Amino acid sequence: MTRLGGPRPHGEGLAATKPVVGLAVGRGTGPELAAVFERVLGALTTAHPTGVEVVRSERLYHSYVSLREEYGVDRIRELTAQDADHYERFCRRLSEDGADVVFRTAINAQSLYLVRRRLRAVKVDLLTAGEKSLLLVRDQAQGFYTGENRHTPHEVTRTLTFSRETTEAVVGYALERARREWGDGRVARVVMAYKFHLLDGAFDAWVADLADRLDVRIEVFQPDTVNRNLITHGLPDRTLLIAGNEWADIMHVVLLDRFGSDRQENRCTENVCLDPGVAGLVEYQTVHGSADDLAGRDLVNPVATIRAAARVAERHAGCPGAVQATETALAVLDEQGVHTPDLGGRHSTTAVVDALLDALEAPGSGGVPRGPALVGGS
């Protein structure tokens, strides 16, 4: 395994003959889930002719709990900035060297959103309910979540920004992604959920101008209006829902329940970077957090991490069928009642992963045989 985090000599790029996957690890249950990710990715890519190289950031990033339990406000601010700067450099170096994917376990939100602002990240999640589907594109690049803090003895002032350039980049990507997800290019409705009334008419004016230029109808609503419509009418099939963090972070789990029929503990999502310097870099993460109370107990639910490994294997490491094979194996685990305690089971993290790999290699499973460990770099 290669570690990446500090400067390297010019021209010393990553191995060009094998797929490269970045790995960034936070505290809490991050190290345990990183091990799950590597193990499952290794099994799913064992047939790859060159192997897969995992490039791990050399820094163990903080969770909010690890910061809050160990440090005071001034030190938290300092470490938050250091984590953000380091993770941004890690992502930019990966992209410069030709990698297009990174898996990250949960880290402190303030550090994370500083990076998402700088890299102009959007979270993408395709939710389905029967034959209906909804594409949620969450704007993580601007707004309250991406703000910076200024402290006085008894006050915190948070400064945030919305920009026309970022808004147009987010909407443009969302439309392109929706047309790609729905193969015939038909998008039934485009809805934006933002607190635009707080921005003196600027935000909805930007969107109206962009809609005219693109010849697309875009409906901009206050979040509470979207909620009322969702409760009363639902949303039509092939709705593209572009939303600010202020609403989407809270509503994601509700939308999962309404459209995805899944729990956040089992879900992974995809973050796409739109900044030109890292355009196309995709970050996968679990929807659940760092679960610091479970750290070191071998009890964290590995399903979301397993699904992330399958997506990386299929979409970025040239292993078609990895996602379906993994879903088939997870269904076997459901039938056998192999679950961690948060899902009502009695199995450890390791036991769940062992059972998954056994199901993948079972005769007639349609899965992949379990192979050797990942081929690492120097």
TrEMBL record:
The UniProt record lists the keyword Acyltransferase: no
Residues of the Isopropylmalate dehydrogenase-like domain: 20-356
SMART domains recorded: Iso_dh
Signal peptide, first to last residue: none
Key word GTP-binding present: no
Cofactor: Mg(2+); Mn(2+)
A GO term for molecular function: oxidoreductase activity
Keywords: Manganese, Metal-binding, NAD, Oxidoreductase
Coiled coil: none
Domain of life: Bacteria
InterPro entries according to UniProt: ICDH/IPMDH (IPR050501), IsoPropMal-DH-like_dom (IPR024084)
Designated name of the protein: Isopropylmalate dehydrogenase-like domain-containing protein
Organism for this UniProt entry: Streptomyces minutiscleroticus
